[in-house]
Amino acid sequence: MGLLSDPNRRKAITSLTLSVLPDVVCYLAGIAWFMGLAFEPFTLRTYMSENAMGSTMVEERFPSGERALATAREFAAHKKKVGGMPVDWLVKTMRAQGLEVFTQSFSRNLPFPDESKERFVVRGTNVYGILRAPRAPRTEALVLSAPCSPGNSNNQAVGLLLGLAQYFRSQIYWAKDIIFLVNEHDLIGVQAWLEGYHHTNITGMGYTPLQGRAGSIQAALSLELNSDVVTSLDLVLEGLNGQLPNLDLANLFHAFCQKLGILCTIQGKLQRSDWDTVEGYTHSAQTMLLMVLKQASGRPWGEHGLFLRYHIEAASIRGVNSFRQYKTDATSIGRLFEGMVRKLNNLLERLHQSYFFYLMPSLTRFVSIGYYMPAFGLLTTILLLRALDLWVHLGTPTPVTEDGVGEGESPSSPGLLSVLTPVVISHLTGVALYTLPVLSQEMAVEHFPVSETEAVVLTAIAIYTAGLALPHNTHRLISGEGTEQGWRVLKLVALLYLAVLLGCTALINFSLGFILAVTLVPAAACVTPHVPKALSAVAMVLLSPGCTILYCVFLFQELQEVPVSLAEGWMLFLSVISQGILDHALYGSLVYPLLALLVYPCWLLFWNILFWK
Amino acid sequence: MATRHLFIELQTLNRRAKLKIIFAKFQCLCIIPALVGVDKKTCIQFCLCTFQEEMVIRPLYSGDIYASFQFRTQWDTDFLHDGKKVSHYRLFPKSLGQVLSKFSVRELHISFTQGYWRTMQWGQPFIPSPPGAELWVWFHHTVTDVDGNWKELTNVLSGIFCASLNFIDSTNTVEPSASFKPLGLGNATDHRFLRYATLPREIVCTENLTPWKKLLPCGSKAGLAVLMKSEKLFHSSFHSQAVHIRPVCKDWQCTSTAWELRQTLNVVFDLYTSGQGKKEWSLFKMFSRTLTEACPLASSSKIYVDVTDNPGGELFDLSPSSPLISTAVVLGDRRTYSVYDLTKKETFGQLRSLNLLLRWKGENDMLRPPLHAERYVSGFGLQKGEIHTCLYNSHPYRAYPVLLLDSLPWYLRLYVHTLTVTSKTRENKPSYIHYQPSKDRLRPHLLEMLVQLPPHSVTEVTVQFERALLKWTEYTPDPNHGFYIGSSVISALVPSIVAMDTNSTRDRPLFSSFFPTKEESSYFMRVYTEPLLVNLPTPDFSMPYNVICLTCTVVAVGYGSFYNLLTRTFQVDEPSAPLAKRLANIIRRLRGVPLL
């Protein structure tokens, strides 16, 4: 430590670390590191960690794909006749197959109408059949689920589910009970079923208690299938609050796709072999960015997403039928599921051997937490360096200027009030942003010609914008002028606050933390009251959390290869906000409260500093 | 030493089985009364042992089939009172007899079960048992060191039955105060002499079946036991084997006692996997064997087929049909059975082999059992949870009390103040609660209560718990699998539809005479809930754990130096000493005098 104890060298090091240069280097390095994660030589190949699923051989013999499709047609006819879920038919069919069948009815009032799915008061019934494993004491179970969607979609999934149930029933090798679940109203039905199964109530759902259970659920697979033949199967992993299932589940899916010769994709993107070309790299970067954006959104991207809260490893498998020549029939898909369920049946422990925190640039490659965290670490280093700089400045006594002498307040110790007031006021704005949109929808609908959903979203945007007027209000409360020391202390507090906030977010949901860091860190690092006001204000607004969501919407559309115009993008942005609020109310997604109660107030603190007088 | 002796006994048993049959025939000739020409009653008095075998076949409404074997050996001796050493064994297995006398066992019940009895589909079993292994023993009241005897006994039984009973220790043994009364003679009430333990994780397989079969007088060489081929018995939905030893009345006057050994085996064959979906059953299809003879040592050897719901033959066909019909009151209901007596030659017909064939024709409604129960853990996360036990009384108008016994391991820390009992959304106060708190690593929780179940209702018993963090050596080799919590036991006197038979000495089929009945209006019933699998907070035992340690060290070093830099004030050191002074110091150091 001789280097650090020498005052001269120390001064040099301090001045170097606290200059702008390392900040810029860290920021660029962080971004570069992150983008480098999609480059194949830097990533690891996936491998099966779980012994019970790796070496054991299973043979897939599911024979009756055609019969499953016939069942699907029958199901479709009954669905049309009833005009919804054909509960009686499902109960009868499952019972005839030798399952123990139970139903659960549920109801849920949405806080405001969901315009994308056209629902407000939801009532429905889940039907599930339990295949009891021979000589097993009902302690473990696997779940296979398929949604009963409105219209003509997903009939094949239910048909295949029933076909698998029939085939599985006649096999002797099951060690875990298998639950076949057909749920109504997609995620709301799954949420009701899971809450009923675990006897919890976290979202204010009304449901009837479940009559039959099968112990602790070890894994779940969700099935979405819209056509008799498919081109490829897409694996969906992103769940509620950015939770991911164990990587072994993805490996298992990939292994069986390889074995059965089925095209498999992740984020709807096929694997490419030309990693050393620009196109190859762009492709995997797009795949990874899509995963990051989906994970950051914190919504469940399939029915599996809700299982993850209960420590049940789950994934959705979605059949895609495009115009390619290559087709896979229902028998092969059935065999894929048979193989996966049999291997999961072989599990001796819960899936825990492989990674829970990862990003996937393709189905065969993954980036583990140890590789992606440095990218985020580099970005937060900037905040810490800035904080250190302010700390050093606050510590060194400034020469007393003539103006400073004679004022009542000592310049070195700004009053606690001048720091506390903006913090409290900005958080109150956050609370208003969190509560008012849903509460005031009726009033808004009365006074303005808008629907409830529009009212909620527009109120949110209005409160968000109104928060920009905060500096004036703050200054009115603080007596006297803000001092030079005052904004420094405030910025120091705000920087540390942001660093802790982002750090915690990134630990739970890396993608969300990283995306917020990319936009918030430059704004937080650069802002002082001495920069040109108008220009900086525009830059600050552009780097605010709300605008980040807007960019993400456009980027997401771009990556999915369905670019949208500005107007369409704006409409999408509005629907994303309403969906975010709904996700919070329906499934307990934490992104909306996080942004409204913590991130936005934190950003307001920096906004306050910009307009410090 | 005793264990070793028993092992040798076991090994030689098989070889001696055939020899034994011949010897036994000579020694106990009177079991074939026709040969000697004395009537059966005098024979039992004269002779010291009888052996009966019996099988009941009950077609279940789900299309499955339930087969229950019972083998009963009665030995008219008492090696507890007399104090004499018994060394002369015939039909009663010596290995068990020695255990009984050495450990002064009054009553012993042990069961090994693979699978869970589905009460809602299958109705009531003749002798219920929980998944895994269950052992409960009443010791004689002269025993001073009950715990020591219990410990040794479990180890010996572990050897006899090739099971992991040696894992029974103080952490899973309880002394139930009310739930397990002696089933045999004598009304012992001092539960200090009772020990009860379950091993819900025990896997039952052929290695447990073989020693169990060897306890039979005929082994698996003759009689009903020839049907017990493990490849078929374990190709089923449910398999349970048990041994029950208890003192019973020697004769109808009950002047002296005798030992009764009942070996039972219950198995349920599945319609879809064993029956290939065809509703057609035969002995050959179930067991891949047919019957050709009774066990020569057996005084009675019978097959009962439940034909209660099939009076006119519209539900199923049974062939060959039997002229013998018997009725018995079983589990609160009067049932009719077709009886096949294997000691009679005409039973086997022309082919000299009996292959019962049962062909379903119609559908029938499921019969709701009067009492059933389920249990589950609610909540999520690894900190807290709640155990829910739901008791269903489906009797339309009668309320009756049940005894609920819960034995939970210490690593579930029960919050007893959260214990609630509700039926029909109202609080249902138990009239009796016996709770013994756990001691960490020493003994489990024991919770017993008497709850009145209102008619046609669900009673829910809930209690919250916290999951303890174990020491790292206390985890099982597969910690992420979870920890098993044994079944709750529900014992009840259920109101009976028909008058129960209270005369215990009358000659009745074995399956209807296991639980003693004291009154006509109700019958005893025991229900086990499913065991639970509970995940405890588990450290990551693998590499990331090391990585975290390493990272923490690095962070600590980095943080230390940073902290140093931020807090310490530095001063300029005085310039180094002049050359002359340094030279002088070197010389002084060499001389060993203090430096300048």
Give me the secondary-structure topology.
The complex is a heterodimer of chains A (613) and B (596).
Chain A: H1 2-5, H2 7-17, H3 20-36, E1 44-45, H4 51-54, H5 65-82, H6 87-96, E2 100-114, E3 119-131, E4 140-148, H7 155-169, E5 177-184, H8 186-197, E6 206-207, E7 216-224, E8 232-236, H9 247-260, E9 263-266, H10 278-297, E10 313-320, H11 330-345, E11 358-362, E12 365-368, H12 369-395, H13 416-439, H14 441-447, H15 452-466, H16 470-477, H17 484-508, H18 510-526, H19 533-542, H20 545-559, H21 566-587, H22 591-610
Parallel strand pairs in A: 4-5, 4-7, 7-10, 8-9
Antiparallel strand pairs in A: 1-12, 2-3, 2-6, 3-5, 8-10, 11-12
Helix pairs in contact in A: 3-12, 5-7, 5-11, 7-11, 9-11, 10-18, 12-17, 12-18, 13-15, 13-16, 13-22, 14-15, 15-21, 17-18, 17-22, 20-21
Chain B: H1 2-27, H2 33-36, H3 40-46, E1 49-59, E2 65-75, H4 94-102, E3 105-114, H5 119-122, E4 132-139, H6 146-161, E5 173-174, E6 194-199, H7 206-214, H8 230-233, E7 238-249, E8 257-269, E9 280-282, H9 283-287, E10 300-306, E11 316-319, E12 325-330, E13 333-341, E14 357-360, E15 371-378, E16 384-393, E17 400-408, E18 412-423, E19 426-427, E20 432-436, E21 445-453, E22 457-467, E23 483-485, E24 489-495, E25 522-528, E26 532-534, H10 543-567, H11 579-591
Parallel strand pairs in B: 1-10
Antiparallel strand pairs in B: 1-2, 2-8, 3-4, 3-7, 4-6, 5-6, 7-8, 9-14, 10-13, 11-14, 12-13, 15-16, 16-22, 17-21, 17-24, 18-19, 18-22, 20-21, 23-26, 24-25
Helix pairs in contact in B: 1-6
